[in-house]
TrEMBL record:
Region (Lon-protease-like): 348-460
Coiled coil (residue ranges): none
Domain statement: The middle region has homology to RecA with ATPase motifs including the RadA KNRFG motif, while the C-terminus is homologous to Lon protease.
Entry's family note: Belongs to the RecA family. RadA subfamily.
Matches recorded under InterPro entries: AAA+_ATPase, DNA_repair_RadA, P-loop_NTPase, RecA_ATP-bd, Ribosomal_Su5_D2-typ_SF, Ribsml_uS5_D2-typ_fold_subgr, Rubredoxin_2
Record-level GO cellular component terms: cytosol
Record field: transmembrane: none
GO molecular function, one term: damaged DNA binding
Protein name per the record: DNA repair protein RadA
Residue span(s) of domain RecA family profile: 63-212
Amino acid sequence: MAKAAQIYRCSECGWTSPKWVGRCGECQAWGTVDDAAAQRPGNTAAGPVTQAARPINAVGLESARSRPTGVEEFDRALGGGLVQGAVTLLAGEPGVGKSTLLLDVTAKWALDAGRALYVTGEESAAQVRLRAERTGAIADHLFLAAETDLSAVLTHIDEVKPSLVILDSVQTVASPTLDNPVGGVNQVREVASTLIRIAKERGIATVLVGHVTKDGSIAGPRVLEHLVDVVLQFEGDRHSRLRMVRTVKNRYGPADEVGCFDLSDAGITSLADPTGLFLSRHAAPVPGTCISVTVEGRRPLLGEVQALVAPSALNTPRRANSGLDSARVSMVLAVLERRGRIQLSTKDVFTSTVGGARLAEPATDLAVLIAVASASAQQATPMGMIALGEVGLAGEIRRVTGMQRRLAEAERMGFSTALVPPDPGPIPAGIRAVEVEHIGSALAIVADPATAFPVDESHR
């Protein structure tokens, strides 16, 4: 009889290959391709259950209720706090402040909620203690351990009996039962699976710190994100004090929340109202600036776009931006030159945001266009004005989501006028809205603001 063909299958995405390869040809994961026959499930008989099935009305809710950690913005991102037995994955770039944030969370938890265990696999216990002394994260019920062996971590959990466990990070801990290298796909999966099982069995709130790859995605197998209950992304520019915790997945709360923090030498503090970090104060109107409102999660934040247009001495003029989406800025510049008849092909164009803000959504297109046009004409935009709208390739201004929330935030911050797309919906009483259907209307306002509406210069 002819020998059956051997098939190799990726355990991550299911991609198959007639021969073994070290890297999956579909999802590009390393070490996930194995013999399909070994992965094929057999016949499984009925077995004992952990708990009998109950009517849904008889299922208690206490095990799914969140407990505040004491760090307001972290609780906001989590939807109220940590849940006993839930496992949270916090990922971010090296040096962004993950350890500082979690050390503060652990200390506040130990002061109010019970014992907390902080396990570090990247630093010594003395290094963590030094950071805790500097940031004030000291508590009697906060226990530190420096381990890279999974069995030792489990022993610490048995001895301390904590209600919160922090593992920093999951890529630095290895299981002694596997021969794979530390940080490999199989090791990360085994470590995470074991800690998830312990957290569920004993009702321990667990936070795993994860590394990220060059493109910003979470390192390790994709199955890791499916196993945990909550996935948080810690973001921030190293040259800025602003840090954001963005919720990517949350089984116990909203998955679109954002928490804002201020990172300094003294530690990390919550920012309940971070809008002031993204605005600069000018005593008089300045050409090349425009304010817009972006929505991070469900939180509207004001951001300032600045532009500089100068004659270029190069054959290919420079296009540089910071804090904005390069593709969208290039599109807006093309629309401005083609539909707005503003010559930019021989000029250098620099665009930036204030305070390290990231304005990448289409709602800020109109603000970018007005800032560039203002800089090109050396005509200052009125103080107290914001601009909201998406710019189309035909030069039309389109509606954006969350218009009422954006305008309400602008009113709260003292802005009195707004350039908005047609039919924006209900407008707050303190905002004077001017509807613009095409970029020509917006450029006319930039050229002569007084003809569009009288602006109260006392408001900002």
